[in-house]
Amino acid sequence: MSENFTKLVESFYGSTIGNVRSPVWMCGLEWGGGYDSKIPILESELEPYGLEDIQTTSLQDFIDNFWASGSPFCRNTMKILCELYNCTEPETEASYDQDWEPWEELGIVGVNGLALILNAFPISFENRRVSGKKWNEYKVRTTKDERNPILLSEWTGLKNFDEYIKFVVKHRSKIYSNERKLRKPKLIICFGKQSLDTFLDLWDVESRTPSLAFNFDDPFNPDFESKSHPNCFAYWTDETLVAVVPFPGGPNGIKSKPRITNVSTWLYNAVAKRYGPNWLDIPNIVVSEKTEEVSIQSEVLSETRLFQDLVNQQLACLERLKGAAAKLPDSWYSTEDGQKQLESLKETLLRDYFHEFDALRKNLKDQQDQKRKETLEKLR
User: Where are the annotated coiled coils located (predicted)?
Assistant: First the structure.
């Protein structure tokens, strides 16, 4: 097992961004999109970080790191936050028709916002339904030997996807639960009912008897009794209500307006019963924002990351091509000289292109890290 994998697991890597002072934490399973099993994962991208490292420094910083217009998770988590906010009966209600600036003014996103987006697992797989079957197909391009990718199973020291799940939960539980106990969020919403036990173990919830159980098709009942068979469950642990609900998307998930409203209202009132109606309040602290500078930095980082990913794809293509061409009869590329030529192309990519923007990326990341530290100091 790679020491780098252990460090990755014992961190918040895979979580996104938000306000670490928020009383509401939202936790998915893993980043969407997923790695392609045909293209090695870059170990250099798997850098561990703590919870405070995802503190947003501005509205633009939050948008750049969180928003993906085609993602049901992004769209519907924002709708849930809007509905939670509306439960406080504000003078100006939040609406999904509003833009980011009004949401920031209402305290839903940004440095002082409600949004904090976490994930349980560090590595994003292309499809959870097939991730187990493809476990032994994924590879990692390590920093020690970029020329020869190794199997993900070798890098992690884990034989299959189930072992990976158990290992991550076991080693992350202490990290995640310690932050929960330290920061005392009032509510943690976990998405993925099929992973109920995983989330409860991750957040160190000892009781398996829910404090609240309801169906997302049932409107809130002040008696806290749901008429239908429950599919949403919440458990008090210390000062926090940990809720596990269906995924915010898909035909059977929290997608429609009634379901989003129902889930938000049930959970808001369950917490309000203990802490009162103002439990969502966050002290507003003014933090200066250089929107254009933040946006440019994010764009450059995104493009340089894309450039390296494209070079990595070319490397993977050459690696596959070399193996396939070696078996091709009557081809120059199957000869010793042809194989050397393919290896030479690979060396050229590694030497001249793969690390082209390393220094620039490090400089920009250092600037972002410094800005995050300054923001956190102002928020303390």
Answer: 350-377
pTM of the model: 0.94
What percentage of the chain reaches a pLDDT higher than 70?
99
Q: pLDDT tens digits, residue range 301-327?
A: 999 999 999 999 999 999 999 999 999
Note whether 87 and 268 are within 8 A (CB). yes
User: Are 187 and 27 in contact, with CB atoms under 8 Å apart?
Assistant: no
More confident residue, 287 or 351: 351
Longest alpha-carbon distance in the chain? 79
| DSSP secondary structure of 269-308 | HHHHHHH-TTTT----------HHHHHHHHHHHHHHHHHH
Does an H or E element contain 372, and which?
A: helix 358-379
Cα–Cα distance measured from residue 42 to residue 30, given in angstroms and rounded to the nearest whole number: 17
Backbone angles phi, psi at 350, to 5 degrees: -70, -40
- Neighbouring residues of 153: CB distance < 8 A, sequence distance ≥ 6: 135, 136, 138, 159, 160
> CB-based contacts of 148: which residues, under 8 Å, 6+ apart?
none
Q: DSSP string of 146-182?
A: TTS-EEHHHHHT-SSHHHHHHHHHHHHHHHHHHHHHH
Q: pLDDT, tens digit, for every residue of 35-91?
A: 999 999 999 999 999 999 999 999 999 999 999 988 999 999 999 999 999 999 999
Measure the CA–CA gap between 172 and 179, rounded to whole angstroms.
11
Question: Token pair 């939040």 is at which residue?
Answer: 94
Q: Please report, as a single letter, which amino acid is at residue 292.
A: E
DSSP state of 220: P
Q: Is the pLDDT of residue 132 over 90?
A: no
Distance CA 282, CA 48 (A): 28
- 3-state DSSP call for residue 9? helix
Give the Cα separation of 135 and 157 in Å (integer).
12
Ramachandran bin of 310, using left for φ above 0, alpha for ψ from -120 to 50, beta for the remaining angles: alpha
Q: Report the C-alpha gap between 52 and 11 in whole angstroms.
A: 11
Q: Answer whether 14's CB lies under 8 Å from 123's CB.
A: yes
